[in-house]
Amino acid sequence: MELNAFAQSVATPDYIAMKVADCQNAVNQSQTVFYIALAAMVVAIICAVIFEIVHTKSKRLDEWDIAADISIAVAVVAALVLTCAAVFWGSYAGSLIDWQNDPLTMVMQHVAKAL
Q1: CA distance 10 to 108
Q2: Average model confidence (pLDDT) across the chain
Q3: How far, in Å, CA of 75 to CA of 48, rounded?
Q4: Which of 33, 38, 36, 31 shows the shortest CA–CA distance to 96?
Q5: What is the full DSSP assignment across the chain?
Q6: CA 85 to CA 40: how far, in whole Å?
Q7: What pLDDT was estimated at residue 57?
Q8: Judging by beta carbons within 10 Å of its beta carbon (0-12, 13-18, 19+), is residue 102 exposed, middle or buried?
Q9: Which range marks the domain in which residue 16 is found?
Q10: What is the pLDDT of residues 68-103, one digit of tens each?
Q11: Sign of the CA dihedral with 77 first, then 83, 87, and 92 last
Q12: Dist CA 84 CA 45 (whole Å)
């Protein structure tokens, strides 16, 4: 059987709808992770600034300096998660567009990779 004919037999409307739904779900999940990481980063940066201000006002408390360092570390980790979520979001959005616009080519690519 020719690759194109096989791909057409596999690319049923139900299969395409399932792939589009999977891509939409992945986009929604990556958006959620993106916004949570953004919120965590903003909160951590605000806390770090507040802790640093308190530390400079009260020169004798080293705990505030440690708390500011921890907040900065949390902000850096949140920034990394934010970057990864943005990359995944873009990737899944691209896949969603591909599945919605040209599902036969996507099926042919998956079949060709499997062979």
Answers
A1: 9
A2: 84
A3: 9
A4: 31
A5: --HHHHHHHH--HHHHHHHHHHHHHHHHHHHHHHHHHHHHHHHHHHHHHHHHHHHHHSTT-HHHHHHHHHHHHHHHHHHHHHHHHHHHHHHHHHHHHHHHH-HHHHHHHHHHHH-
A6: 13
A7: 79
A8: exposed
A9: 3-114
A10: 888 889 999 999 999 999 999 999 998 888 888 877
A11: positive
A12: 19
Number of domains in the chain: 1
- Whether the CB-CB separation of 111 and 7 falls below 8 Å is answered with yes
The two structure tokens encoding residue 5: 């004919």
For residue 53, give both structure tokens: 């201000």
Q: What is the pLDDT of residues 1-14, one digit of tens each?
A: 576 677 777 777 88
Tell if the pTM clears 0.70, that is, is over it: yes
